[in-house]
Task: inverse folding
């Protein structure tokens, strides 16, 4: 699931599905937390290629998916004919209510999308605006400390090829207290908020550099083409130094140091 594009060219939707499908798989427990009933209206924010929205539809839920990336939505329409999706920036309250209606949903679901949105107060306010009173907001996103090791490796690799290592990212990883306070400011009652580590193995054949190319584009796009191979090697070398080539259980294999923030809130 995605929201804002990682670079000006947009997401590689097919590559995302083929090599990083764990994003969708790890979001499956959110459907249980959402507990959507047949006939309910649910908005999937950052629906990406549409797999979770389609799973909800199979349960008899009236689901609408929104994402800001056209390539993701094109693949969602191809893979899930009949799925209702719209291209919209969920940080724009006017745009999202124009696209899907104000106060018209029983629940909002979002998996691995909100951390791409720099305007956190805007998106929480926008999601409140599409929910009916008593509507549920169920979200999982990156939390405080997310991808700290891989980001350190990425920045070290930038320095190694002569680029500014301190370039800002487009990621936002709030703490539980920060996000709970934000939800309450925008009219939600917080029922659950939890921060937890999720050791996430990469697909066989993928390395830290592959993850960086997909998800860290803001820190990669200015790498000169002539330096890309050296940069990839440097990312992997620094990631090895940080232990990302051997999983915490001792088994060999690349992994990413995800930290997830999961929350359930209800609109007053």
Result:
């Amino acid at each position: 699931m995605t929201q804002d594009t990682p670079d000006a060219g947009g997401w590689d939707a097919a590559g995302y599905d083929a090599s990083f499908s764990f994003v969708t798989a790890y979001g499956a427990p959110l459907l249980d937390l959402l507990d959507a009933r047949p006939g309910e209206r649910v908005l999937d924010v950052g629906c990406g290629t549409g797999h979770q929205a389609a799973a909800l539809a199979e349960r008899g839920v009236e689901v609408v998916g929104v994402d800001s990336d056209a390539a993701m939505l094109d693949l969602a329409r191809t893979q899930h004919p009949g799925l209702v999706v719209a291209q919209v920036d969920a940080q724009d309250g006017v745009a999202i209510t124009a696209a899907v209606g104000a106060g018209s949903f029983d629940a909002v679901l979002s998996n691995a999308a909100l951390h791409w949105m720099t305007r956190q107060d805007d998106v929480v306010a926008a999601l409140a605006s599409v929910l009916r009173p008593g509507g549920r907001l169920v979200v999982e996103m990156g939390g405080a400390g997310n991808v700290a090791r891989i980001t350190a490796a990425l920045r070290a690799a930038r320095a190694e090829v002569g680029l500014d290592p301190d370039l800002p990212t487009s990621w936002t990883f709030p703490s539980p207290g920060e996000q709970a306070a934000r939800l309450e400011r925008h009219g939600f009652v917080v029922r659950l908020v939890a921060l937890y580590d999720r050791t996430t193995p990469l697909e066989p054949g993928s390395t830290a550099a592959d993850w960086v190319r997909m998800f860290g584009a803001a820190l990669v796009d200015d790498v000169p083409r002539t330096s890309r191979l050296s940069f990839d090697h440097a990312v992997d070398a620094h990631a090895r130094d940080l232990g990302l080539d051997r999983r915490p259980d001792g088994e060999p294999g690349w992994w990413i140091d995800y930290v997830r923030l999961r929350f359930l809130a209800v609109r007053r």
